[in-house]
Design brief:
heterodimer; A: six-stranded mixed β-sheet; B: mainly beta; seven-stranded mixed β-sheet
Chain lengths: 110, 112
């Protein structure tokens, strides 16, 4: 079964700093998704990465995909408090099933 | 906000009871997937329905069952509830055209 590992699981960072969340997966896939989840809420789609070398940016977040290394990254630039949430990566199978990592709980403090 | 709606939003049940959760998929989407998210964990795939047929199942016992209706809405049924079934249940709808799943707001189930 496809395994997805995220690290770190917990991230506490100061406003204005940069950091990267890593997502490794065990089986070849060209579908990688990043979601945001606020406490008690559902999943909000952030990025859909569908090919090797794909890079997408939205505001202070940038996601990339390296299918050969089975690695995706979510880079945070100049963090602000509003980015505090849990971030999940998910790998898609050909049948459309998503395999999720355990999530990275991000806290941004002043 | 997605067009996927789930009901109810919260539910409390007693161990041994049965529960039915409902999901209305986004317009134009013919595939519905259900996920269970325990506290502090990532969502786990329960099963998927495509055009009213089960199209894949995760590692969940048979007491978890589902249906998809001709309008592509879906139900998740759980029999003989156990305390460990307490979780957020998420429904996601998708189409075969765009490889992206859109999640509903979830149903928080508490089994006491």
């Amino acid at each position: 079964e496809l395994k997805v590992e995220q690290n770190p699981l917990f991230l506490s960072m100061q406003e204005g700093k940069n950091y990267t969340i890593y997502c490794n997966y065990s089986t070849t896939s060209d579908r990688l998704y990043w979601y945001r989840q606020d406490p008690g809420k559902s999943l909000e789609s952030l990025f859909v990465l569908l090919s090797n070398g794909a890079v997408k940016q939205e505001g202070r977040l940038m996601a990339s995909l390296d299918t050969k290394a089975r690695l995706s990254t979510l880079h945070i630039t100049a963090a602000v408090h509003d980015l505090s949430a849990t971030y999940f990566c998910a790998v898609g199978s050909t049948l459309g099933r998503l395999y999720f990592g355990r999530g990275t709980q991000l806290t941004v403090w002043p | 906000e997605t067009g996927v709606t789930q009901s109810p939003t919260h539910l409390i049940k007693t161990r041994g009871q049965q529960v039915t959760l409902r999901c209305s998929s986004q317009s134009g989407h013919n595939t519905v997937s259900w996920y269970q998210q325990a506290l502090g964990q990532g969502p786990q795939f329960i099963f998927q329905y495509y055009r009213e047929e089960e199209n894949g199942r995760g590692n969940f016992p048979p007491r978890f069952s589902g249906l998809q209706f001709p309008n592509y809405s879906s139900e998740l049924n759980v029999n003989a509830l156990e305390l460990d079934d307490s979780a957020l249940y998420l429904c996601a709808s998708s189409s075969g055209v765009v490889p992206e799943a859109f999640f509903g707001q979830g149903t928080r189930l508490t089994v006491v």
